[in-house]
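Next up, a chain.

===
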Amino acid sequence: MRETLTLTRPDDWHVHLRQGAMLGLAAAHTAARFGRAAVMPNLSPPVETVARALDYRAEIMAALPAGAEFNPMMSLYLTDHTAPDEVAAAARCAHIIAYKLYPAGTTTHSEAGVTRIAPVMPALEAMAGHGVVLQVHAEVRDPQVDVFDREAVFIEQVLEPLHRELPELKIVVEHVTTEQGVDFVRHSGDHVAATVTAHHLLFNRNQMFRGGLRPHAYCLPVAKRERHRVALVEAATSGDRSFFLGTDSAPHRRRDKESACGCAGIYSAHAAVELYAEIFESAGALDRLEGFAGHYGADFYGLERNRGRLTLEKKARRVAPAYALGGGDEVVPLRAGETLTWSVLPPGH
């Protein structure tokens, strides 16, 4: 007898779709699994205004496969110079759901990010007033802080004080990676949540060094110790509505990953829901996947849950070794060449 699992069509509340050839690849894989996605704004140059976000959204829609039913929800890039008037304009736009805070210099294309909280307080106060969500890459950029401690330090030095000062501001700790991040979310009330990636649930920091240096396991924030991974799995599979799906799927060309200074990012859009199904099944919590993937994020953002459905089948599928981009470029996906235990069935199966 065929084993299947049918869910409310999930949403991805943190994804990088890029531009050009990578946009076509990432948009197709994402739209095949998700009804909506929160699209990150760290392009070059970054997406700072409503007008630019709508232009980028049009690029995404044009790149989708024919017949795709997918709604890109745009995030704007917060800078030291973001004006409250721009926040108000963002709040009026149905296609924009959040601002993204990148501490300057912490990750891909974050050079224009926030240097200190003080300059952005007027924008944050406007966001709180208009009900605009703040998505946070929660790492300090201080080179004196160990890379494995940067999330915990950011939470202590920045997020906890900010939440005390502006408790009405809705905050999402993006791609949470630590016990400290989980604890902060759990003890901060209904206005604080977190997205959890598949890769941070699947492996700890040893994966980057398994049998040698593995650039395709390198992401930011980096994977942490095993105890942190265990804490993430417990939080994601617990049924706690403060934790929901955000892949942080971030494609890079193979040559940019396998270089003397490799880029941070893991591409998981090709099998995102299938990977989460494996994780939840291993934790004995497959019945809680629907809430994590399709309910809690929409509820936090104040949106209707998707009406469509997605069905997975317990059927082995081998992941491609790489996805071609043209011109000799390619993207190496998470679990490249390995076998997944779940597959997504096409619509109308």
Q: What stands out?
A: The longest helix spans residues 150-165. The first strand starts at residue 4 and ends at 8.
